[in-house]
């Protein structure tokens, strides 16, 4: 992956995309595969905001059945299968358990009806390219067996549970990067740390953008036939900056979602409980820890100012303690916390949790901004389908036949692995000097590029040093700096590797990563200290 500004670049494109989250990179990939000349600009790092603040799931949205949103659930289930196929190293079946109780809200009958509908809407879930990844139909088990399988479930008035399957996205940040890399491999250009400062306009038509390269502090002008706003929680702010009057008809609402990571609480199932208020909270197995989430709370501040607060963490822990049969969790049990803002389309229901993750694609010509398209709402699972729908609008605006989408029919770059378990077994045989934990982690998180990382480590022995309990090695740090547009410690710890995503990795590992980055980037002591301070603000829990 080469950053747009690091090689000779053009000044005009068919489309310019603002925003490098999952929506923006998916649109870039879809457009590039249709033969369009694409440039994407992201003011921070790719997938840094909402796309990194997920529950790490690829799922159908079981709760939307309550609102009779069958079309949305069907679309999500179909896209779940497609992501299993095209990104097999990232997306895996996971068993979910929903307990039932002798009350009206969590009873067996209503859950059974929901489970049957969920199965019917995903009858094609067995059509996976990797036959080991077929998802099973749901089953119902007794209260006694439920408690035996998952002791974390409260026993009082328990009548049993249903077990069904959705998918886990083991690394949303790297999957976002994989989609971007696929776009770049098809000709798209992209740059992180490239802030769109303003729009180039003439007679109420948007002709392009002015971009500041934050790494070199230089300004550039780029023109395009169409500009697409994919900035998620910043959508309406970007639109206001484009409007001469600073007012537009489109307004989004923002919902805060936070997650915490603790030591392992439940066994192998993602356990889903309904709170007294009717909202779901989950405890999800992840990297031999438990991921707990999420909240869904209206946020009214500026998105740049959002931070996870101690109050938000404590509110989530209180919900968990009230609904699970485990030992009460304390603030001190939290190893790491992260959060983000979800963009909700303004005309959705009043309570943010009740809002579905619908998406809308707007032609802003009716706002006096011809040449600008805005995408609002959506969720990670349906991002590919959203991008395909966006290209239908692009085709009409450009008056060009762009053909049909092919992104559901081919692997992402470096993910063309027909059988993941066979692939891992072959890696174990091929690289006997590495532990199975390292083989598993690097093989799944980097796909076919794992060979590059293993060769780096074998050529330079210090790079084979193991940094984390699940086998990450120092060669990953060197690889992501050289090949994946990682420019800060935050990029390295949280979005290219998983070294920091379980919390502070310990002084020895932290120092080793910092020394490696400092040597490669030739940082002086002042810059190194700045980087350390920024990353420690993320590691440290709020006081």
Q: Could you outline the blueprint of secondary structure elements for this entry?
A:
Layout: E1 12-18, H1 22-33, E2 38-41, E3 57-58, H2 70-86, E4 91-101, H3 108-120, E5 139-141, H4 143-149, E6 158-169, H5 172-185, E7 189-191, E8 194-202, E9 205-213, E10 218-229, H6 235-242, E11 252-263, E12 270-274, E13 280-286, E14 289-293, E15 297-299, H7 310-323, E16 336-345, E17 359-363, E18 372-377, H8 383-398, H9 420-430, H10 436-446, H11 450-459, H12 475-483, H13 489-496, H14 507-521, H15 525-539
Parallel strand pairs: 1-2, 1-10, 2-7, 4-12, 10-18
Antiparallel strand pairs: 3-6, 4-6, 5-6, 8-9, 9-10, 11-14, 11-15, 11-16, 12-13, 13-14, 17-18
Helix pairs in contact: 1-5, 1-8, 9-10, 11-12
Describe this structure in words.
The protein is built from 15 helices and 18 strands. With 543 residues, it is an alpha+beta fold. It folds into three domains: 168 residues, FAD/NAD(P)-binding domain, CATH 3.50.50.60; 171 residues, D-Amino Acid Oxidase, subunit A, domain 2 (D-Amino Acid Oxidase, Chain A, domain 2), CATH 3.30.9.10; 120 residues, Alpha-glycerophosphate oxidase, cap domain (Helicase, Ruva Protein, domain 3, Orthogonal Bundle). The strands form two sheets. Strands 3, 4, 5, 6, 11, 12, 13, 14, 15 and 16 form a ten-stranded mixed beta sheet that branches. Strands 1, 2, 7, 8, 9, 10, 17 and 18 form an eight-stranded mixed beta sheet that branches. About 2% of the residues have low confidence.
